[in-house]
């Protein structure tokens, strides 16, 4: 049976009485069938955060008119809202360097239809190492060498490619370059979301070989964090995290292996949650409706 198209409304606004009632009544009064709803009140900061999803089939408002009617509904709340149709493809670009575990995992999951309506359109890399592996998936692999001298030109080329492919979401799958403020701001201003993955040692073990540093210190857990990218390095709103325990019997290679496993899983979870429109951001943090 074909999956029926749904409409998801996400709303973040100052908290006030009657929001849930008004959203639900809007859908009910127009013949909609609600299939999922989640709400959260942040009493400390005075925010309402909500997600409500309903079937498009049977809804009395024409698809092309829904956005205007939702705007009339949500504008008085003086917040931010987004509207998403489940049958709309979401174009994804993956940026990578030399490590293959995250990018290959995402490509395999995409083949298995685990990433919702993701349409992985292009892979960008500052190294050619992974081209032969990625070519097997039939997705364009674009290698753009980068160094300190040509970084501004390369970043401009990256911006142009994201526009050319009309990308919605960029995934930094162990892309080992720091994005400049100008690049991050331009991508955000273009309406593109950027998601990054890294080990959860930051800021305890920064720089090269963090797992070697962790092993030397005898850590008891290691972890991974996926977050939205902002101009402040590794400080964007966190989407997903996980940890695994470490014992004195684990070697450096064991830590690296376990760390890579976590990075794959956490990045895939974070991307899927975002693609399913389950993540709301405010005050540099997130509410995730799993």
UniProtKB/TrEMBL annotation:
Pfam families membership: Formyl_trans_N
Any one Gene Ontology molecular-function term assigned to this protein's record: formyltetrahydrofolate deformylase activity
Record has Transport as a keyword: no
Signal peptide (UniProt feature, chain positions): none
UniProt keyword annotations, A-Z: Hydrolase, One-carbon metabolism
Occurrences of domain Formyl transferase N-terminal (ranges): 91-271
Keyword Chaperone recorded: no
One annotated GO biological process: amino acid metabolic process
Record CDD domains: ACT_F4HF-DF, FMT_core_Formyl-FH4-Hydrolase_C
Record-linked InterPro entries: ACT-like_dom_sf, Formyl-FH4-Hydrolase_C, Formyl_transf_N, Formyl_transf_N_sf, PurU, PurU_ACT
Domain of life the protein comes from: Eukaryota
NCBIfam families per the UniProt record, alphabetical: PRK06027.1, PurU
Protein name: Formyltetrahydrofolate deformylase
